[in-house]
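REQUEST FORM: STRUCTURE PREDICTION
Request ID: SP-0412
Submitted by: Lab K.M.
Chain count: 1
Length (residues): 468
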Amino acid sequence: GLVLKDTVSGHTTTVAAGATTFAISPAVPSGSTYTVVVMTQPTNPTQTCSVASGGSGTVGAGPVTSVVVNCVTSTFTVGGTISGLTGTGLVLTDSVSTHAQTVTSGSTTFTLSPAVNSGSTYNISVTTQPTTPTQFCRVDSGGTGTVTTAGVTNVVVTCRTTGKFVFVSNPVDNPGGSAPNGSLSAFTVNAATGALTAVTGSNPLSVTGTGPVGIAVDPSGLFIYVADTLTARVASYAVNPGPGGLTPGTTATAGTDTVGTTQPHSVTLSPSGAIAYVGSFDTPNGNITSYTVLNGVLTRVAAAPAPPYSSPSSLGVVVDPSDLYVIATNTFVGKLSMFTVGAGGTLTPILGSPFPFQSNNSAVNDAYAIAMYPAGGFVYITDWVANTVTAYSYSASGLTELATPITVGTKPESVKVDPSGRFLYVATNGNDGAEVSKVTAFAIDPTTGILNPTAIGTIPTGGGPSAS
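STATUS: Completed
RESULT:
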């Protein structure tokens, strides 16, 4: 696309890519003056050409061959945007040019340097994942292409904080034994693939006379808190931040405290991790007990538990992301309780609580597992009797059923929302083998909270899941 012009004669020539000589035609008479200029710069790749010498003069006794034109290929940078980066050490690399950049924590943009020639291809990838906190970043779009006439700014990198470990509770390892042993297992997580590897020496961590069920992980990642049905306690375990091993609290007061009920099943933390809420599974009336949390030590809040109400299930207590409300399922009577959160984790039932759980028309229903939408405003609740999942909105005035309950598999024990808020998953245990256990996926409308079917649909698990 390079076009050279003699401004005196008006004649032009388009020069082919790779050419090392040029001639402007038709020829002009001897004695004619000439002035050669660059009329159009070349593209693909973008270049800047200029007449370096000999560009003007008078035609003599032969053709003029002394005009010198130099062309330099333009260079442009490759970069884009980053969302969600809170860790340190993220490295992005262009595998074509091998240029790399270590991106500062909190950055929302990046630019690889030095610039590369127009016409160069690029292939951006994450070559080092961030740590502190551990995150998984990926190039979502624009990662490959060709540099053309301007800097590349459309590479999109998304980072999400990822857990380093998975912790699993087993209430009974030796059913029927003289000294029942509950256990906890720890696994490391491959941030890229999700693969789990058992932590050496912690699988299982067996403690005689315990029955651990619900687990909550402290935001620092340094402690977990476990509801223990057999000892009627909530216990803390220190997490080794390197290999992920677990160490029980060293004394009865450092990390454990009596719950005051016989079957504590669930434990969940406030958004800051400063308060733990423990739900019981007692019959006929359970409760929620609040604890302040500091460095693995739980201290019961004097004003808790809240007034007794029918028991929340082991997965039935959630905290609003704004830390304004606690919502719990009342398993045995099929109702929903909602509390305002006061100073230090004190709970006060809001007007109208407990609310009816209208997931079926029978006299008996069973509000069981509950999941909170990450941004708040919606909760999703399974019915153990009707085999459904129902979406609710909530506000200061209480809970409102959003749509007709959706039928899932038999005995929906667990419901979870993915961290992005796009999908919801319901695990059903198939009534202890009477039906194949399954996981069903739904898409969440972020505006209305309504659940919609997905192409994934329902997937058999081959087992009897208790939690997802």
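NOTES: Helices lie at 430-433.
Reviewed by: T.R.
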